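Example S7 (structure tokens).
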């Protein structure tokens, strides 16, 4: 059941089955790193793109995914990138900060629901894990299920459907109606999916906690194994109330140290062995070490494995939004003795941990917790970025607070645009004057705002929030493309990818030699054939290309178009205009 030597990257698990392409993907995460999020669209691209480090291929993959991917993350836990890439502009439609709205409750599920297509056939995949969308090096678990849609909704899928349906209502800023409708449609289709059972598993149950009516997971059993990086006394008491013997728990040393001595009396404590911990691990770094969450229970009727996002804490099972999969099977397959017996592979990676417990929270840790709560609260307010055109084709953005932020006097709260680091203003109060950012280029326009909070100690927390963008300029992202595609060779590679039927599929990328038309013939015949074929089979791709060509013909980037390209492009574009006129 647990195979510690079996490694799999998240991007590999997102990859469509052979012959399929992505229709829609919805992902949830507690923490989100925007740079890591850029890797997600590559999972859905063709082999030659996935295996390439060509920035143009990456650019096209991110661009194509913008309308097919939605990522929901806890507000206040979207990390500020060290250096924001231009490509982050293409993540704007995908990223949705969310807030649960209950005091102390967090949005904590780590789930991907994916729909793929091959012609008219649809295939579905569910990933339930403890993995966030970050550059995480920690030990995690993931359950992957594949399935196909049936005719009628299944009771088993109700928690999954309810989670999907709830996501738009949890978003800090309203989603576009088209995205809401797409997610609702996916929820309906997923409710009818029959999932393939893993080997030796006879029953699957889904648990969406913190959504709708209160739901509980029954942890009754005569033996328990708990894997959880974070623990609480009341959480362990709830989970192990039916124990008959000491509860085996794999966690972090600092979590065991926090437990009360009376709790530790029934805990058989284990931590990861020093030899298997990351050699670069730093004490307190949340992105290394143990991060998996799983519960194994032995009953006379068989054993249960419950895997997902929930830690063994009262908060996880008493308020947070969490998602877990419960699997029922025989003890020889998923029993406590099998998973963590003396000869098990997992047991070999751990060592006993002895502690008296009772370590109290320090004043510094209390102050850190206050700061963490403050940044989450501030990230839950709604901001509005209003774009204004100034002189000389420059722009300004007024950042308004739409809802009340109520920062305390002890905190210094500043905002800045993600695209213009270093230029910060105080967070504007509700109904007060806006924070004004002037002298912006077209590519500086963004809904992404950085909120930074500093307390009296000088300690800081920062996060990226997504404001409502008013007055955005048409084809702003085309300007971002034009800035990236700054040589004729890059333009030809992008043209090839943009006009590929069905997206960036398995066709090899054109070469990067400096000849007049890359790996196409020197007279441009390959380019012309690609344009003509697209006119017949993928005409919308030409519309996208036309906007880019227009943007690149300005004074700053006209040299990026290959010599002689206009002679090939003009007759094709006239034919496309006539085609659109005929259709009208």
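Recovered sequence:
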């Amino acid at each position: 059941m647990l195979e510690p030597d079996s490694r799999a990257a998240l991007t590999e698990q997102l990859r469509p089955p052979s012959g399929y392409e992505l229709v829609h993907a919805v992902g949830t995460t507690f923490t989100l790193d925007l740079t890591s999020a850029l890797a997600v669209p590559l999972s859905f691209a063709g082999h030659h793109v996935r295996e390439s480090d060509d920035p143009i291929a990456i650019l096209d993959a991110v661009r194509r995914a913008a309308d097919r991917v939605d990522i929901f993350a806890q507000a206040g836990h979207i990390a500020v990138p060290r250096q924001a890439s231009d490509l982050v502009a293409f993540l704007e439609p995908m990223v949705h900060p969310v807030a649960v709205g209950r005091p102390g409750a967090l949005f904590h599920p780590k789930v991907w629901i994916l729909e793929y297509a091959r012609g008219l056939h649809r295939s579905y995949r569910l990933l339930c894990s403890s993995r966030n969308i970050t550059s995480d090096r920690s030990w995690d678990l993931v359950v992957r299920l594949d399935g196909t849609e049936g005719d009628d909704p299944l009771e088993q899928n109700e928690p999954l459907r309810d989670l999907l349906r709830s996501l738009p209502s949890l978003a800090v800023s309203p989603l576009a109606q088209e995205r809401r409708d797409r997610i609702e449609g996916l929820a309906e289709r997923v409710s009818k999916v029959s999932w393939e059972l893993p080997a030796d598993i006879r029953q699957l149950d889904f648990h969406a906690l913190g959504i709708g009516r209160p739901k509980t997971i029954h942890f009754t059993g005569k033996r328990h194994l708990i894997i959880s990086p974070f623990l609480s006394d009341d959480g362990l008491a709830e989970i192990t109330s039916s124990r008959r013997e000491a509860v085996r728990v794999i966690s972090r040393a600092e979590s065991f140290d926090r437990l009360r001595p009376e709790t530790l009396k029934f805990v058989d404590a284990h931590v990861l062995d020093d030899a298997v911990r990351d050699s670069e691990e730093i004490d307190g770094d949340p992105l290394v070490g143990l991060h998996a969450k799983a519960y194994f229970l032995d009953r006379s009727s068989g054993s249960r494995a419950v895997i997902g996002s929930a830690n063994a804490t009262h908060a996880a099972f008493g308020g947070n939004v969490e998602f877990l999969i419960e699997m029922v099977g025989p003890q020889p397959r998923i029993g406590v003795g099998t998973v963590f017996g003396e000869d098990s592979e997992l047991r070999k990676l751990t060592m006993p941990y002895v502690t008296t417990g009772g370590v109290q929270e320090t004043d510094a840790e209390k102050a850190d917790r206050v700061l963490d709560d403050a940044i989450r609260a501030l990230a839950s307010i709604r901001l509005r970025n209003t774009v204004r055109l100034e002189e000389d084709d420059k722009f300004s953005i007024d950042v308004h607070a739409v809802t009340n932020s109520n920062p305390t006097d002890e905190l210094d709260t500043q905002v800045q645009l993600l695209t213009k680091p270093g230029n910060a203003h105080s967070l504007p109060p509700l109904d007060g004057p806006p924070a004004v950012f002037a002298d912006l280029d077209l590519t500086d326009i963004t809904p992404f705002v950085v909120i930074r909070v500093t307390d009296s100690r000088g300690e800081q927390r920062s996060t990226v929030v997504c404001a409502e963008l008013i007055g955005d300029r048409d084809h702003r992202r085309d300007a971002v493309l034009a800035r990236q595609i700054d040589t004729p060779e890059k333009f030809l590679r992008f043209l090839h990818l943009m006009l590929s039927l069905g997206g960036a599929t398995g066709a090899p990328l054109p070469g990067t030699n400096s000849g007049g038309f890359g790996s196409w013939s020197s007279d441009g015949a390959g380019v012309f054939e690609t344009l003509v074929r697209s006119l017949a089979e993928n005409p919308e791709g030409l519309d996208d290309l036309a906007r880019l060509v227009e943007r690149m013909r300005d004074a700053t980037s006209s040299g990026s178009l290959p010599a002689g390209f206009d002679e090939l492009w003009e007759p094709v574009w006239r034919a496309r205009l006539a085609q659109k006129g005929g259709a009208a």
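Notes on this example. The two ends are 59 Å apart (CA to CA).
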